[in-house]
Each structure stands twice: as C-alpha cells, then as structure tokens.
Amino acid sequence: MDELASLREISAELGSDEMQVQAGGGNTSVKTDAGLWIKASGTRLRDALDSNIFVLLPWTRLEGWKAGSDDALTAQDPGGNMVRASVETAMHLALPHRYVAHTHSVRTISWLIQDACVEELSRRLEGLKVFRMPYIHPGRTLAEEIERAIAGLEVDALLLENHGLVVGADDPGQLMDRLCEIERRLDGPLRPNAVDPNEVTWEDALPGWMPVEGSARQMAFDQDALRIAAGGTLYPDHCVYLGPTVAAAENHEAVAEALMQYEKQHSVAAKALLVGGLGAFVRADSSPACAEMLRCLGNVVQRTARGAQISYLQPNAVALLMNWDAEAYRLQVAAELAARSKV
After folding, report:
1. Is the pLDDT of residue 343 over 50?
2. What was the pLDDT predicted at 341?
3. 237 domain residue, yes or no
4. Which segments of the chain are extended strands (E)?
5. Mean of pLDDT values over 266-276
6. Is residue 123 part of a domain?
7. Structural domain span for residue 326
8. Which one of 128, 214, 255, 328 is most buried, by most CB atoms within 10 A?
9. φ, ψ of residue 33 in degrees (nearest 5)
C-alpha cells in the first residue's frame, strides 16, 4: 500500500493549491499489480489524507469496461461505499506511466485559451516531452484520441486545450518535479488593474448575492477582463459550476437588466455575476465550490494578454457537458460532502 500512500500525499498537495485544482476537479491515479487506484468522482483531492477518496478498479474489471460496460467503473471504496471512479479513468489508462495527475492548471489553461499562443508555448516548453491536444469531450472519447495521437511517441505531459494539464511518471517525486517544471515555465506576469479593488467600498447589499473577493473581484475593474469572463465557457468546470458563462453588468444600476438578459439568452438563471467597478458575486445559496470556481476564472483571466483573442468551448460542447449524467453525479457527490462538512 506504499503506492497508495504516495498517491494520497501528492494528491493532497495538488488539491490544496487553487492554481492546480478547484472544487471537485482534477484527478490522480496509480497503477498497481492489483489494479488502478483512482480518485472517486465528486471527491476532492485536498481530502486525500483524511478521507477514502480513492477506489480500486481491478484489471479484470477494467477489461470489462474496455468491452463497453460503464458499470465496471462503479466499485466499493475502502469505507465500503459504492462509488463511481473518476470520469477521466480512461485518460489515466491511456498513459503508460504508473502515476498520473490531471489538474485544471490555471497557468496552463490561461495559455491554451489564447489563439496566438502556439509559438510562445513551444518556446517556453522546449525540450520537454509535452504533447498538445485539441479540446475533446472528457471521458472515453478523449482517451481514445490521446491513445491515437501519442502512439509511438515518448510523452510525459499533455496540454489539453480549454481543459488543463496531464502529467505522468513512474514515481511520485518525478511526477511532481515534471509538473512543477511545467508550471514554472508557464508562469507569467499578471495584468495590472487600473483601479485597486481594495480602495473601492460598497455598503449597499445586493439581495440574494454573496461577494467573492480576490482574483474574482479584480475582473470587475478591468473592461477587457469582463469581456473575456462574460464571453463564454473557457473550460469544462466553468460551465459545470457557474453555468454557460457569467452575467456581467456595467454598474450597480444595470444588474437587473443584465440578469434578465442572461436568463433570456441561456434559458437558465445566472449563478455568477460581475458588476463593473464594484465586484464579483455568486448566488447566496451557492456552495463554496461556486466561489472557488469564480476565483479560478479570475486567476485565468489575470494571466491573459490584454486584447487577446480567446477560444471558447462551442455551444454544443457546453450543452453536452451541462447535460452529462457523469457531471450531474459529480455535483451530487460534492453537494453531499459539503452538507456533511456543515454537520
């Protein structure tokens, strides 16, 4: 069980870093003689040292999954609970490495959503065994495309457009070294704010909404950041937790109109709201994960070039994610975990 203990350690470290993992996102695994240990869907990597977040999928069971049985990904966790393995199980199997970590790296996403980033990415990652993949719906389809794309190549990391980072290695220390090296190379300057949000105070309440500070609020003081944030879905968890995009109002007086237009356009009520010159908000009844995801959006946007052309997920890809039963299950598990933590 030393392999599982090592997996728990690196998972907790990654899960405690919002620049790598947000809410119930990200997943890790280790291949052992007994089978694949992988994060259970909906659980949080940061809980890896304190909770049974991993499930063992024996190799015989995985053979059944490869034959088309999705039920093979449902198994018993060490606590005796029946859970589903991560929706990204297939991707972990597509890579040959013993240890695999998939994160929603803010630095990686911020580069991959910018149309004119190819040359800069190549320069920054020169010498590393990195392969870039176009956006593909998560799960089995993505894994099949990865297998085809990297066949015969030596690849230690994948850059998934509008999605994140995948790193593999045969020992946990090497995996973390590779991941940290990529993060170091992709680090860049933050866009400055014309106005310091900390200098703006606001006493009036916005009924039904809760303010979110930090990088989320900074978007409200940058018109270009507002453009990017409200322009569409940047990555899967963006729409899973926050809806197709965020609502944006020019100022406090324009909030009601902005919310009405959002619902008219998307046929759902807004879950997140940016108010120019004021701040960022999520619905007051939202889970903590929504605020975390809005901060993630702020962290991503802060690292884009001013005026950059942005690649968003296509509407059909967003609809597929928002109507995917695997994502509904993940949100249900996350909600149950959040409810238990309040008891």
Report:
1. no
2. 53
3. yes
4. 27-31, 35-39, 54-58, 74-76, 82-84, 99-103, 130-133, 157-160, 164-169, 209-212, 247-249, 272-275, 279-283
5. 94
6. yes
7. 197-342
8. 255
9. -60, -35
